[in-house]
Amino acid sequence: MLYDVIVVGSGIAGLFSALYAKKNGLNVAVLTKSNPFRSNSAVASGGINAVINLAEFDSVQNHVNDTIDGADGLSYKKIIESMCEDAPNIIAELKEMGVGFDEDKDGKIQQRPFGGASSKRTCYIADRTGSSIVQTLFLKCRNAGVHILSNHKFLNITQYKGKLSGVTVLRRHNSQVIAMACKSLVLAGGGYAGVFRGHSTNSQESSGDVIAAALRANMKLTNMEFIQFHPTTLAHSGALISEAARGEGGYLVDETGERFTDELMTRDKLSRAIVQHMLEGHKVYLDLRHLGEDVIDKKLPSAKKMALNGAGIDLSKELLEITPSAHYSIGGIWTRGDTSTDMPFVFACGECAATGVHGANRLGGNSLLEGAYFGRLAGKEAARVALKREFLPIDYAYVERELRRVELILNGDGIFNINAMRKNLGESLFKNAGVIRDENSLSSALEYTYYLMKQQYGLHCVNKDIHNNVELASILEFKNALVISEVMLLSALGREESRGVHFRSDFPNKNDKKFNTESYVFYLNENNFLVTFEFQSRHSILYAIKKLLHLN
Questions:
Q1: For the chain, which terminus, N or C, has the lower number of CB atoms within 10 Å?
Q2: What is the set of domains in the chain, with CATH numbers?
Q3: Taking the model in full, what pTM does it have?
């Protein structure tokens, strides 16, 4: 199969990329490993930030300043300025496409307050904003002639003489490994907060596949230690209760009924406040009873449904017990301001990319904006280079290698339970690399990750059916999750300070003198990574652990 542009991922970034690439008349395909409506964008409920109402005493500069303040020192001002300046145009474009933002009686888009924002600037569709935008973009892509390839699991990038030639893909309906040639590639496959299985708002398929593949292709990763925890998720499942609930006036209370914190602090600070209160022996609840049933039904229908189905709680009458859960990965594939990566003709956008706008902590409402802004940009850039390139040959050694790997997983005798191993990894990460971490806990998580790496070779499918084999996909995802966990933990160990979402109890203060810079991860070989910081050279090792010592 030959496509001018291949986009991996069907969230807001991927669909915008595909739509903008298609405007140039190119042959464009979107790869999504399951249902295209299961992306993280589709569950981003609360809204999308943009300054569209100056009567609220807001300004683009305020949006820029809030984003920089929330980022805690690691953001790029010029990139943030460009994104915030374009935000009103993005809202106008989405509205023109048919996205039905909530409006007042005069037809003006309504906005709600979000944590870390100095004004009301979050546009919304009740508390299902992301899913509404994704559905609209999906229809636009389909009508424009973009090929939507569902149940096509991206495996790896193929190269010819060091340059992009295509991708390898697993067709899930028959477990066949195929190659697809492309002139340019957009990686928009989401983040890696799903490695915290059992303690994550992400879908069970979220495992950082795209980022792991980028690392194997010798692409640079950055800021992998920064995982944002959402303050309000169901206590026993990690299911998301949108920040919209607090934006509409919800309280956080303990078992005494007392409010103990500012509900609209930035997510890093609020998550720590909640965890600290829990460590002191309290339970934490979301209280919406004072909002009234009408407001909850109109503004927070998804939260009401989630509370009822997930915990048996009626939000209009009862308190809902909550806890922070892993929600958003700020680090990812290193990109320039135009979404290009350090591999020519490969672009990255959305949650899998580190674009420089979130720094060490993301403001709620900025993720959908980031996805839209950089998705449009990636589509334009991918089309621009595709128009100038010819297809390169596919080296079928890539296909053969992936085929052997799939056959081995399918045909061997399984001695471990994949679901138990994924859950155990998530428990270890949540306990030892969660909202509060230190050297001992991170080292324990890393040691357990290495233990699981040894055990992964005993993972084989119990069900040998090649048709829609869920177990096969889970094993492949778990192997990627282990790689992601390792580089995340190495990066967290290397950053001996507290900044944004990364809080080290053994280094509780920010150290601008030494760590006011990004961390980087480089692929050395199959068994080694290099984790370093910008002030050091590419080849200096700050915190490199040889996996061979653990795996042999």
A1: C
A2: 2-226+328-386 (3.50.50.60), 232-325 (3.90.700.10), 397-551 (1.20.58.100)
A3: 0.95
